[in-house]
Amino acid sequence: MNKTLRNKILNTSIIRPLPLNIAYFDKISLRNVKKIALFASIGLFVVINLALGQSNTPSEPELTPADKSHWAFQPAKHRPLPTVKNPLWASNPIDFFILEKLDEKKLAPSPSASKEHLIRRVTLDLIGLAPTIEEINAFQNDPNPNAYESLIDRLLNSPHYGERWSLFWLDLARYAESNGYEADGERSQFWRYRDYVLNAFNSDKPYYEFILEQLGGDILAKSMIKPNEDIPQAILRNPKIAELLSAVGFNRCGPTHMVGGNSDQEILRQENLTEMTSAVGSVFMGLTIGCARCHDHKFDPLSQVDYYRMQAFFGSTYFKEIDMVSAAQKKAREDESFKYKQQLNPLKASVDAIDKPVRDKLTKAKIESLDKETKIALATDVKQRSPQQHKLVSMASPLVKVTWDEVLEALSPKAKEEREKIKARMHDIEARKPQPSPQTFTVIDNGTGGTNFLKRGNPKSKGARIEPGFPRLLAPGGFQAGNAKVPDRLDLAQWLIRSENPLTAKVMVNRIWQQHFGAGLVASPSDYGVKGIPPTHPELLDWLALEFVNSGWSIKHMHRLIVLSSTYRQTSKNENLTWLKVDPENKYLWRMNRKRMDAEILRDSMIFVAGKMNQKLHGPMIKIPLEPEIYDLIFTEGEPDGLWLANPDPHEHFRRSVYLFNKRNVRLPVLEVFDQPDTLVTCPIRNSSTHAPQALTMLNGPLSQELCLAMAANIIEDAGIKQEDWIALLWQRVLGRKPTPNEQENALTFLKEQAEKIGADVSNKIALRIPKTSKKQKIDSIQSAAFSDLCLALFNTNEFVYRP
Questions:
Q1: Are residues 427 and 363 in the same domain?
Q2: Cα–Cα distance between 148 and 297 in angstroms, integer?
Q3: Which of 117, 465, 562, 791 would disulfide-bridge 708, Cβ 3.0–4.6 Å?
Q4: Which of 408, 431, 454 is the last residue of a domain?
Q5: Structure confidence at residue 259 as a pLDDT band (50, 70, 90)
Q6: Distance between CA atoms of 457 and 305, rounded to whole angstroms?
Q7: 310 is in which domain, residue-wise?
Q8: What is the phi/psi pair of residue 663, to 5°?
Q9: Which helix or strand (DSSP H or E) is residue 752 part of?
Q10: What per-residue string of b and e applies to 714-726 under the rule 16 or more CB within 10 Å gives b?
Q11: In terms of DSSP H, where are the helices of 497-592?
């Protein structure tokens, strides 16, 4: 290698990073420079991570004019409404900004949607359920010019509004009721955070208050507790304290390693701090601040020090479960639990007594099949094993493991029968399992604050102590709380809602807009950085952000503005080919976007129109029965029986989906197949995929099969014995409209042909599934079974699955 090339490599490896931090050069010893030169001389290129030699006081790159001028970091500006060609089309200021872009692109808005489409659209959007026939008829026949406004007010005041819109926030909060990872332990009482969110939406809690309580609720609660007063007493005196302690569950929503033993607690602690810090950056600020944990952000003006300033707000935050009842009440609950275990444990011991001899015999046989060295290694005490023996044991462990299926197969018929009897008694006891003593999953602040700068994000490479602070670009003046107070999470929340913060309001109004239109004005709702997508309507985004703040941060006010706009009320049925070429993605909203229902809303709507909905609000999570295939797939380590105890009341299985047990490692097929998000990370945008398993689930899934029978029975009960009346009522309940003459004719033909097919199946002794009715009139069972198949077919239409 010639000298010129060698010098070029050395310059690339060492000298080029110097402008970022010239102090780093001093940390590279002469010996290391000689080593680099040696590698270079033999043609090997070595990239030197200068951070390895970093001092305890890290420096930061200077902010450039380009950094400061990025669109997202500018404060929202008020501007007059634009002049447009067709101002009469506008219903409110939103429409003027939309028209401005349409005029610019030589596009025009579409006609208004029909009343039946409009009520279906806005009802699904605001409460997540399809409108009833009575609601549709009342709206269509209401001559009042303010009928639509009255409809909006009714929906916003419905308790179902919170059930629908809490889903949106829980996606962002990465909410689940288990810890994730391998163990995935349950958080059986974490539902109190979900109920807090639901109630916050229903009460139209101002968004600034929503932020304060979720980030600093425990600190606010602490100020409400009297000296020498325990928390249960304080909660009894002031229920707001319980609400605040539940609110900070936001910081615990993410996955958590809950392990003990030899696990490195320092690493686990840093995992929790990283999770909390990244979530705040993504959810409230719309920034990928977590990307600056190990190095300065590759694209955005966020330094690694900025990241640790933010993390420092959580440096004194620790997870805690707090009792919500008195010691006496807790003792009473514990006594109930003790009695329950006294009943259950002897039965468990009886089952183990049946299983153990068989399991031991199978294990012994597997060990005997191994080679001599491995058998010796297995027999050697773990502390006495050599490295080679440890390796042999590790390789042999899967080979000698006895599965539950193997035990079951080896049991004698008599043992199986006895075992099943014991299990039945256990199930009867488990169905009456006492509720645990009420607790809230919260966090506490020990007042220390601060964190350490971690070189390359490694908890074992600690650098300088970093105090709480804000990203330099967004808070050039630094932290302004006075010297007498250690900055905490409440200070972070208060900074987020300051009027000079350019992000918080913009991020939230864009998220609300996205939920209604299918895409945000900013199409990257949690990335407002350099690699994010600039807004299609920047002036509208500014106007919405200012309006949001001026309204007192009212989320319902923003809903009302959006759904009352002419933009929202456009039809989605406009296939203008010229306009499609100009704006194929409908970024400028020359028509309304059709939108497939989210997984939970689709499930809820099916249950609702079938007449099976349990409309009970709030409360503990609900476990519904799992399909056997899912059960066996998930619970493979041991006997699956009893690991997923479905709620014994079948009526509870038809609660709204927001109440279903959300376990990270157990996904319900009917929800997963329609893109229910992974709860390991915050989800700003749900996928909207189309694939074959969706159709298979809707046609053959147990929920669809059960609901089509229930719907057929309900309609036959209400409509009488004429098939024409069945069809008319079915169309109205499922699609919100009457069938066309052609649809009526096709449906009658389907019933006739399907009845013939079912009749042939009955002749061949294939079991017949019949809707159960209490009708005194004689309803032909084959005809009613055919009608249930028609109900199933209508569930599978795009018109039902998609919001118009």
A1: yes
A2: 48
A3: 791
A4: 431
A5: low
A6: 11
A7: 206-324+441-501
A8: -100, 130
A9: helix 741-763
A10: bbbeebeeebeeb
A11: 504-517, 538-550, 555-564, 577-582
CA dist 535 and 524 (Å) reads: 9
pLDDT digits (tens, 9 = 90+) for 324-381: 888 888 888 888 989 999 999 999 899 999 999 999 999 899 899 999 999 898 899 9
AA letter at 505: A
Evaluate whether residue 66 is within a structural domain. no
Contacts of 755 (CB under 8 A, 6+ apart): 780, 782, 783, 785, 786
Q: Are 583 and 562 in contact (CB under 8 A)?
A: no
Give per-residue pLDDT as tens, 663-713: 999 889 999 999 999 999 999 999 999 999 999 999 999 999 999 999 999
Half-sphere exposure of 319 (CA within 13 A, CB side): 21
What tens digit of pLDDT does each residue of 20-47 get? 333 333 334 433 444 444 444 444 433 3
- For 151, the token pair is 């409809």
* Residue 453 in domain: yes
Neighbour-count burial for 79-90, b at 16+ CB within 10 Å, e otherwise: eeebebeeeebb
SS (H, E, C) 464-510: EEECCCCCCCCCCCCCCCCCCCCCCHHHHHHHHCCCCCCCHHHHHHH
Q: How far is CA 39 from the centre of its chain?
A: 49
In the DSSP assignment, the letter for residue 673 is: T
Residue 210 domain-assigned (yes or no): yes
Local confidence band at 775 (pLDDT 50, 70, 90 cut-offs): low
- Tokens at residue 334, please? 């514990």
CB neighbours of residue 130 within 10 Å: 24
On average, the pLDDT of the chain sits at 88
Q: What is the pLDDT of residues 385-422, one digit of tens each?
A: 999 998 998 898 888 888 878 888 899 999 989 998 99
DSSP per-residue string spanning 360-400: HHHHHHHHHTS-HHHHHHHHS-GGG--HHHHHHHHHHHHHH
For residue 630, what are its two tokens? 């899912």
Check whether residue 394 and residue 417 sit in a common domain: yes
Global confidence as pTM = 0.88
The reply to whether 744 and 774 lie within a common domain is yes
Distance, CA of 804 to CA of 593 (rounded, Å): 8
Per-position DSSP letters for 345-360, written without gaps between them: HHHHHHHHHHHHHHHH
User: Is residue 279 domain-shared with residue 410, that is, in the same domain?
Assistant: no
Strand partners, 663: 666
CB 451 within 8 A of CB 312: yes
Helix (H) or strand (E) holding 441: strand 439-445
Instruction: Report residue 776 CA to chain centroid gap.
Output: 47
Number of domains in the chain: 4
List Cβ neighbours of 213 (8 Å cut-off, separation of 6 or more): 205, 220, 243, 244, 247, 248
Q: List beta partners, residue 465.
A: 452
pLDDT tens for 441-497 read: 999 998 888 898 989 888 888 989 999 999 999 986 565 544 557 889 999 999 999
The Cα 371–Cα 196 span in angstroms is 59
Instruction: Quick: pLDDT tens for 145-197.
Output: 999 999 999 999 999 999 999 999 999 999 999 998 888 889 989 999 999 99
| Residue 636 in this model has a pLDDT that exceeds 60 | no
Whole-angstrom Cα distance, residue 318 to residue 212? 18
Question: Could you tell me which residues are beta bridge partners of residue 802?
Answer: 596
